[in-house]
Design brief:
The structure holds two protein chains of two kinds. By secondary structure, chain A is mostly helical. Chain A contains 15 helices and no strands. In chain A, α6 packs antiparallel against α7, α6 crosses α14 and α12 runs antiparallel to α14. By secondary structure, chain B is mainly α. Helix content of chain B is 76%, strand content 0%. Chain B has eleven helices and no strands. The chains are: A mainly alpha, B mainly alpha. Chains A and B meet through α2, α7, α8, α12 and α13 of A and α5, α6, α9, α10 and α11 of B.
């Protein structure tokens, strides 16, 4: 088990290096003079000089790269080109809101997706199965921002249960989380359905039924437990989709978070802040995938043993 | 005599090739999702091509005398905050969204397939390097890569297309390389190598045709994804800029009047859903038609 954790963590190093390097190159690849782009309408000779000195833009690129790593390893992400606030401060202020949104969305997606998939598989080739397929395929095709607007229209305008924008508290979290969860729920429902259909053919289920176990016990304890394994592998990938959805949905609901910070930063061409947001989102995504990978090995001994044996 | 044999062979081959095309398309049409997807996408293509004939009004010309009118016989989908006909804008929007969906994905998959097939065929250090690079590209959600490119190049629809194209190349390389490896292990390719066929012939004649099917399936599903991401970026103000009749940008502008004029937001939204749904169904249909093993 420990060797699994070690292997997976080491395997992450090239990807982390790639992420950091892509983020570094953003500044170097800016078309035109970086200081001019960053300052835009605030441009003066002195400001440009100061910024070039601060970012080391006059140095050769490899020195800039080394200095970038030096700062990065010290946890220094630079300062915003627009507000002059430290990027880390700006990000940490917004991070909890996005984490809450993504986590709630994930819970909703798993609950809806697993419930839908199990119902569809147990009632294979009935209207329930057919409608689950239709709804989950639709879920994959509806853009999160449109679903968010439809939720606002239904709960804010027609039913008047929640304010149209900027809701706080539970209502302000649950609608955006629903919007973020929709595509992931659709994907999970489709995956659970097909893996349940496979597992339901298994001979050990016949045995379980012949032992006289109740049907609900057979489905939940025997079938679902095995059917969930393929789901765990995709949860990491779905988390990326959820984060992407959160970037858009935060802007639909005027909800604070990394997504709004990032989009505003791109519009204002505040590259240091964009770099910080991209680093954080990419890092969070890689960490979640690392945890999922390790959990997968812990849950399914076949994986742990097979991979351990082949690499040793 | 020998030329007779050759011409016979050519005919047999042509017949074989035609029959394979007929086979695949008849299987695609026999598949319900493939059929619905093909018809749906066909309708969108017709609407996009014939937009200037179909649209009842100018999509860009404001009409301040007819601002935010509810759907009626005159304006089937109502009018927006500048009095523009929503139906006409949705019709012209099909042009933008189909272009933004197909062009970058096609470019990415042409480049990516070439690299992927070569990488799988050559193997060794070249292959290992390409794989490490695609690993990094595939380790992040597509929208994040797209946002990075837009942040560097600046907002705008053409930059969004460049971003989508770049973000899709690693995936294309992976799919093409994977199927090159599995086809390369097939007995008929191994025999071609054994009888001393030139590399060029093996690649073009035996490997590339087999790679086409999996690449086409993934590329189709990626077109749907590209339309979703592009409309999302336009919704955020990073893609198409007003007054362009882009569906995502239309939604963003309509959101401000959502309490009084639902139609300005709902119809462009439905257009995105239907276009993406049609392409997703077509992709599912392709998968069932081209890869009988994956059928469920």
């Amino acid at each position: 088990m420990l060797s699994l954790v070690g292997r997976r963590t080491l395997g992450l190093i090239p990807t982390l290096w790639g992420l950091a390097t892509i983020v570094f190159l953003m500044l170097a690849l800016l078309p035109g003079d970086a200081a001019t782009v960053l300052l835009s309408f605030r441009y003066t000779e002195e400001a440009a000089e100061a910024l070039r000195a601060q970012l080391g833009l006059d140095e050769p690129i490899w020195i800039q790269y080394l200095e970038y790593w030096q700062r990065l390893l010290q946890g220094d992400l630079g300062t915003s080109a627009v507000t002059n606030v430290a990027v880390t401060t700006a990000i940490w202020e917004q991070f909890p809101a996005t984490a809450a949104l993504a986590a709630t969305g994930m819970v909703i997606a798993i609950v809806l997706g697993v419930a839908g998939g199990v119902c569809a598989a147990v009632r294979h080739r009935t209207w329930l199965d057919a409608s689950t397929i239709v709804v989950s395929t639709l879920g994959l095709s509806v853009p999160t921002f449109f679903f968010g607007i439809l939720l606002i229209l239904l709960f804010g305008v027609v039913l008047e249960w929640v304010p149209v924008v900027g809701g706080t508290g539970f209502g302000g979290l649950i609608l955006p989380a629903l919007a973020v969860a929709l595509p992931a729920a659709g994907y999970i429902a489709r995956t659970v359905r097909s893996s349940m259909l496979e597992v339901l053919q298994a001979e050990y289920l016949v045995t379980a039924r012949q032992k006289g176990l109740r049907e609900s016990t057979v489905v939940v304890r025997h079938a679902l437990r095995n059917a969930l394994i393929p789901i765990i592998t995709v949860i990491g990938l779905l988390f990326g989709q959820l984060l992407g959805g959160a970037i858009v949905v935060e802007n639909v609901f005027a909800r604070p978070g990394i997504g709004r910070l990032l989009v505003n930063a791109i519009q204002q061409r505040d590259i240091p802040l964009v770099q910080g947001c991209v680093l954080l989102i990419g890092f969070a995504y890689l960490m979640v995938n690392l945890v999922v990978d390790i959990a997968y090995g812990a849950i399914d001994p076949r994986i742990r043993l097979a991979r351990g044996a082949s690499s040793e | 005599m020998s030329s007779d044999v050759t011409s016979d062979l050519v005919q047999v081959r042509a017949r074989h090739r035609r029959s394979r095309l007929v086979q695949v398309s008849s299987r695609l049409l026999a598949n319900p999702s493939g059929r619905i997807g093909l018809v749906g996408l066909g309708l969108f293509v017709v609407v996009a091509v014939a937009a200037s004939l179909l649209a009842p009004y100018d999509p860009l010309e404001p009409d301040y005398g007819a601002v935010l009118q509810a759907p009626s016989s005159e304006h089937l989908f109502g009018t927006d905050q500048l009095g523009r006909d929503v139906l006409s804008r949705v019709i012209y929007g099909a042009r933008i969204s189909l272009t933004v969906g197909f062009v970058p994905v096609a470019a990415a998959f042409i480049v990516g397939t070439a690299i992927g097939v070569l990488s799988g065929f050559i193997g060794g250090r070249f292959d290992a390097t390409i794989m490490r690079l695609t690993d990094i590209g595939l380790a992040f959600p597509g929208i994040l890569l797209a946002l990075v490119v837009v942040a560097v190049l600046g907002p705008g629809l053409s930059n969004v297309m460049i971003a989508l194209g770049i973000a899709d190349v690693p995936l294309a390389i992976r799919v093409a390389r994977g199927s090159t490896l599995s086809i390369g292990a097939q007995p008929y390719v191994q025999s071609a190598i054994a009888v001393g066929c030139r590399d060029r012939r093996i690649l073009l004649r035996y490997i590339l045709p087999g790679v086409t099917a999996p690449v086409l399936i993934v590329a189709t599903l990626e077109v749907a994804n590209a339309i979703l991401i592009a409309s999302g970026l336009s919704f955020l103000g990073l893609g198409a800029q007003p007054p362009a009749p882009e569906w995502g940008a239309m939604l963003a502008q309509a959101q401000a009047q959502i309490q009084t004029a639902w139609w300005a937001a709902v119809f462009p939204g439905i257009a995105i859903v239907l276009a993406v749904l049609a392409i997703n169904l077509l992709g599912d249909g392709f998968r069932d038609a081209l890869d009988p093993k994956a059928r469920r």
